[in-house]
From TrEMBL, chain A:
Entry keyword annotation includes Lipid metabolism: no
Domain ABC transporter span(s) in chain numbering: 21-272
PROSITE patterns the UniProt entry points to: ABC_TRANSPORTER_1, ABC_TRANSPORTER_2
Cellular localisation: Cell membrane
Protein's name in the database: Oligopeptide transport system ATP-binding protein
Listed GO biological process terms: peptide transport
The family this protein is said to belong to: Belongs to the ABC transporter superfamily.
Keywords, ordered alphabetically: ATP-binding, Cell membrane, Membrane, Nucleotide-binding, Transport
GO cellular component, one term: plasma membrane
Keyword set includes Kinase: no
Listed InterPro entries: AAA+_ATPase, ABC_Ni/Peptide_Import, ABC_transporter-like_ATP-bd, ABC_transporter-like_CS, Oligopep_ABC_C, P-loop_NTPase
Membrane topology per record: Peripheral membrane protein
From TrEMBL, chain B:
Subcellular location(s) of the protein: Cell membrane
Record-linked Pfam families: BPD_transp_1, OppC_N
Gene3D superfamilies: MetI-like
Native species: Geodermatophilus ruber
PANTHER family, per database record: ABC TRANSPORTER PERMEASE PROTEIN, OLIGOPEPTIDE TRANSPORT SYSTEM PERMEASE PROTEIN APPC
Keyword Transport: yes
Record protein name field: Oligopeptide transport system permease protein
Primary location class: membrane
Keyword Transmembrane: yes
Automatic annotation (TrEMBL), chain C:
GO cellular component annotations of the record: plasma membrane
GO biological process, one term: transmembrane transport
Residue intervals of the ABC transmembrane type-1 domain: 95-297
Membrane-topology annotation of the record: Multi-pass membrane protein
Entry-linked InterPro entries: BPD_transp_1_N, MetI-like, MetI-like_sf
Superkingdom of origin organism: Bacteria
UniProt entry keywords in alphabetical sequence: Cell membrane, Membrane, Transmembrane, Transmembrane helix, Transport
Subcellular location as annotated: Cell membrane
Keyword Cell membrane recorded: yes
Alphabetized Pfam families for the sequence: BPD_transp_1, BPD_transp_1_N
Protein name: Oligopeptide transport system permease protein
Length: 350, 316, 307
């Protein structure tokens, strides 16, 4: 049902099916002793079955926090969800009692994390930890759960699953550990899988294997995949659509091919210029100048304006489009593409 | 390892390189790192009420040891009148009188000096023994380490009070202030040794020491300029707490009848004397106990606060 | 694992020999002539003195005395005191008292310490956390000597809730001394547990457990406490050996006829054979429980492998 990899243009609207997950104007802040940190400031997106949505951004852009808000695993306090909705299968999870939210985690939405070594409990065997999914949500016996764990380990292609089911996380290699995490996450056939930097901690060759596995599982099950990453290469290879986040907001959204080939936001443009590309041999890499924003004191107007080469301030700006004063809304720039920049048309060159 | 530590290490490697190549005299890398550690620690200490309570109590205790006559409200601890025997505390005599009819406040106050001297002296010997044995053991490793570690294990297996009890009872070193301090140190240095040894081993295998070594720094220089400064923080925490522990141990030994002897003035002796009068004159045990506890607490609080300040991982 | 235990046992031997020789040397350097002291006011006949000195090898050089002593020890002979009483009898009679005291102390330490630490660690900076933090600082600071007297006076004399001394009330006699003996370790266990729980609650694998949709009870018990208690359990294990050797003050103040009290009495009476025998036994216990803890560590934490 999803388009094949590396296929040509397909707009988000062209994707079949109703959304399985909709995030609507989500706001999260951290209330610490030294002040309030605005980590997520009005993020909205939707995910269809079988779709892979990449959320791209620097550390501190709010991409992981928004994912943890969806999972309901933010540490509260200090984190507080101050507004918005998370709609899953027709219900707003944020309005559900804690017990209902818990029941969604695993069979409905599940998540894998960056560092599988620290994300797996060192004192339990991997079989126990995978089997826990069946015991907690299906009330299975310990023995049956372990048998299912072996099946899952086979499915994520861990060699000699049967003999390794009682091994502990530290006895596996990095790639195999991430497979264990994946096995755990897909155990109950979730509708949505959130992968938070799933390959960042791995060697390059292993990265590709793990991503291939994720794609294959997605094809088999039709689950929606949210891929949180700062790795443009990974996004390019596996995602259908991409949302670029900056300072807790989505600043650009569209299909991967569109966004990558022709960015509509100066920040995205900067990101594309800061990584080496095979096609552009000999060119110089252009780092984005300045520092990522301090979320306790987000710049007025467009949060990116202090680092933006295209900013227009005061008299140079069009009315109501002063980059330092007016917050640019996320708007449709061209069909299938949204961006939060007053001057996206210039960036696109249309 | 925290990012900060990692950054520090990298900084050290770079500095260690420049130092030798450019023959820059003495901007010691370890100093720079230590400076930031200590100024951070001081910032954190300043904001810790525990530290201030401990410091004020500790200061009172030290002043009491230095100028007891001020705290004793003019009373002479040895001017006694049997007519006053075991009198309860009053407005005139805050702590009452002991069995011999001596002013008890004066006696308790004058007891601070012996406690302080023994505490400081014993901890000094503990440090000398611990740092020396620990540094040698950790730095040279191999056979030397095995032998020294085994010897440490032997002492470690004997409880402090027990070992000191037997040494003091044997009478070979007497029963004075110095003897008690030495007996305590003889069975109390092992933790310091293990602390220093593990620090030395940890730092020895770090990259910046390898870099310094590659640049031809001598053993002595590596040990003195790179390794020992890193052991200072944990040893300082340990030392502060240990002073309190040793002061308590002195009182215990004296109470058991193998520490200080009359006419010396000591909290342990006062508790021992008061013991049999617990029912009729509980203040005789209460006051020295209270002040002994407060003193020990002062050092433990300061040590706790220091640990929180010096160990960034423990910071909230 | 088996090889590790064997190696550790082997390493134990020099420590055991060293510690017993150390105590032996110190004890037999005690001044005064114990044999003459035995006669009291009436001097013993020279022949009797000579015979006693010979019986206790008092005229041999120290090292020879020690070798003879160890030789006897290896055959299960702890020797006799100067009054002809078997040291082993003394140990058999005294050890149960100390064991009971230690058991009571360890139970207090484990139960109260762990519960307090867990409650404090789960709600960090809450009321209970601060209470545990402050009270553990105070308890750690009170010398056992002071604690023994104060509790004896307040709970025993004033309120009469507990027996003041002796062991005539069965286990009940051991409650107060046990609590006193445990106090310092109890405070330490509470702090250790608190730190460990608070640290583990922030661990990535606890976040994973939440993301798996486990019940909160399972997240806390299985994925936080199970991990947090590893250092606590090992500390408590090692503390058994420490407490058995540290009961001198408690047993003296509460007048419990255990081995701590026996050591104290024997040091005073210059009964070398008793002191050396009991101390050697205590060192053995200390080393034994430390070994048990090392093995326990590997059982509790699969990452630890000694081979």
């Amino acid at each position: 049902m999803t388009r094949p990899e590396l296929s040509e243009h397909a707009s988000p609207a062209a994707l079949p099916g109703t959304p399985v997950l909709e995030v609507d104007d989500l706001h999260v802040e951290f209330r610490t002793r030294s002040g309030v940190v605005n980590a997520v400031n009005g993020v909205s997106y939707s995910l269809a079955a079988g779709e892979t949505l990449a959320i791209l951004g620097e550390s501190g852009s709010g991409k992981s926090v928004s994912a943890q808000a969806i999972m309901g695993i933010l540490d509260t306090p200090p984190a507080v969800i101050t507004g918005g909705g998370i709609w899953f299968e027709g219900r707003d999870l944020l309005q559900q009692p804690a017990e209902e939210q818990r029941k969604v985690r695993g069979p409905g939405i599940s998540m894998i994390f960056q560092d599988a070594l620290s994300s797996l409990n060192p004192v339990y065997s991997v079989g126990y930890q995978i089997g826990e999914m069946f015991r907690a949500h299906r009330g299975m016996s310990k023995k049956d759960a372990k048998a299912r764990a072996v099946e899952l380990m086979d499915r994520v292609r861990i060699p000699a699953a049967k003999s390794r089911v009682n091994d502990y996380p530290h006895q596996f290699s990095g790639g195999m550990r991430q497979r264990v995490m994946i096995a755990m996450a897909i155990a109950l056939d979730p509708r949505v899988l959130i992968a938070d930097e799933p390959t960042t901690a791995l060697d390059v060759t292993v990265q590709a294997q793990v991503m291939d596995l994720l794609k294959e599982l997605q094809r088999d099950t039709g689950m929606g995949l949210i891929l949180i990453t700062h790795d443009l290469g990974v996004v390019n290879e596996v995602a259908d659509n991409v949302a670029v986040m900056y300072a807790g907001r989505i600043v650009e959204r569209g299909t991967v091919d569109d966004v990558f080939s022709d960015p509509a936001h100066p920040y995205t443009d900067g990101l594309m210029g800061s990584v080496p590309q095979v096609e552009a041999k000999g060119g110089r890499l252009q780092p984005i100048v300045g520092q990522p924003p301090n979320l306790a004191a987000i710049p007025s107007g467009c949060p990116f304006h202090p680092r933006c080469a295209r900013r227009r301030l005061g008299a140079a700006a069009a009315p109501g489009k002063d980059c330092a004063a007016d917050v640019p809304p996320l708007r449709l720039v061209v069909p299938g593409r949204e961006a939060a920049c007053h001057y996206s048309e210039e960036v696109l060159g249309v | 390892m925290t990012d900060q530590q990692q950054a520090d290490l990298r900084h050290d490697e770079v500095e260690a390189g420049t130092q030798t190549v450019l023959a820059a005299p003495s901007i010691d890398v370890t100093n720079a790192r230590q400076n930031s550690l200590w100024s951070d620690a001081w910032d954190s200490l300043r904001r810790n009420p525990l530290f201030w309570i401990g410091a004020v109590l500790g200061l009172v205790f030290v002043l009491m040891a230095l100028i007891p006559q001020v705290f004793a409200r003019g009373a002479d601890p040895r001017a006694c009148n049997l007519a006053n025997s075991n009198q309860k505390p009053s407005a005139e005599h805050w702590f009452g009188f002991d069995q011999q009819g001596c002013d008890y406040l004066a006696n308790v106050v004058y007891g601070a000096r012996n406690s302080l001297i023994i505490g400081l002296l014993a901890v000094l010997v503990v440090l000398v023994l611990g740092v020396l044995v620990g540094a040698v053991s950790g730095f040279y490793g191999g056979m030397i380490d095995s032998v020294l570690s085994r010897i440490t294990d032997i002492f470690y297996a004997l409880p402090l009070i027990l070992g000191a009890l037997v040494v003091l009872r044997s009478g070979t070193i007497g029963r004075g202030v110095v003897a008690v301090a030495i007996a305590l140190a003889a069975f109390g240095w092992m933790t310091a040794m293990r602390l220093v040894r593990s620090q030395v081993i940890a730092v020895k295998s770090s990259d910046y020491v390898a870099a310094a070594r590659a640049m031809g720094a001598s053993n002595r220089r590596i040990l003195l300029r790179h390794i020992l400064p890193n052991a200072v923080a944990p040893v300082l925490v340990y030392t502060t707490i240990t002073i309190g522990v040793l002061i308590a141990a002195e009182a215990t030994l004296t109470f058991l009848g193998v520490g200080l002897q009359r006419p010396a003035i000591s909290w342990g002796l006062q508790i021992e004397n008061g013991q049999s009068l617990l029912r009729t004159a509980p203040h005789l045990v209460l006051f020295p106990s209270l002040i002994l506890t407060t003193t020990v607490m002062a050092f433990i609080m300061m040590g706790d606060a220091l640990r929180d300040a010096l160990d960034p991982r423990q910071r909230a | 694992m088996g090889r590790y235990i064997a190696r550790r046992l082997l390493l134990t031997i020099p420590v055991l020999i060293g510690a017993s020789f150390l105590i032996f040397a110190m004890v037999y350097a005690l001044p005064g002539d114990p044999i003459r002291a035995l006669g009291g006011d009436r001097p013993l006949a020279p022949a009797v003195v000579a015979q006693l000195r010979d019986q206790f090898n008092l005229d041999d050089p120290l090292l020879i005395q020690y070798v003879k002593y160890v030789g006897d020890l290896l055959q299960g002979d702890f020797g006799t005191d100067f009054r002809g009483r078997e040291v082993l009898d003394t140990i058999e009679q005294r050890l149960p008292v100390t064991v009971k005291l230690t058991v009571v102390a360890i139970v207090f330490e484990a139960v109260i310490g762990i519960i307090a630490g867990v409650l404090a660690g789960i709600r960090r900076n809450g009321f209970l956390d601060n209470l545990v933090l402050v009270s553990s600082t105070i308890v750690v600071s009170v010398p056992i000597l002071v604690l023994a007297f104060v509790s004896q006076f307040v709970l025993g004399v004033k309120f009469g809730w507990f027996p003041i001394a002796g062991i005539n009330d069965g286990w009940y006699s051991f409650l107060l001394p046990g609590l006193v003996l445990a106090a310092g370790s109890l405070a330490y266990v509470a702090r250790l547990t608190r730190t460990s729980v608070a640290e583990n609650l922030r661990a990535d694998y606890v976040r994973t457990a939440r993301a798996k949709g486990l019940r909160n009870r399972d997240v806390v018990i299985r994925h936080t406490l199970r991990n947090s208690l590893i250092p606590v359990v090992t500390f408590i294990g090692a503390d058994i050996g420490t407490l058995m050797g540290g009961a001198i003050v408690t047993e003296t103040v509460f007048n419990l006829p255990g081995i701590g009290r026996a050591i104290f009495d024997s040091v005073q009476a210059q009964e070398g054979a008793v002191v050396v025998g009991i101390v050697t036994l205590m060192v053995f216990f200390f080393i034994f429980f430390n070994l048990v803890v090392d093995v326990l560590y590997a059982v509790l934490d699969p990452r630890i492998r000694y081979d």
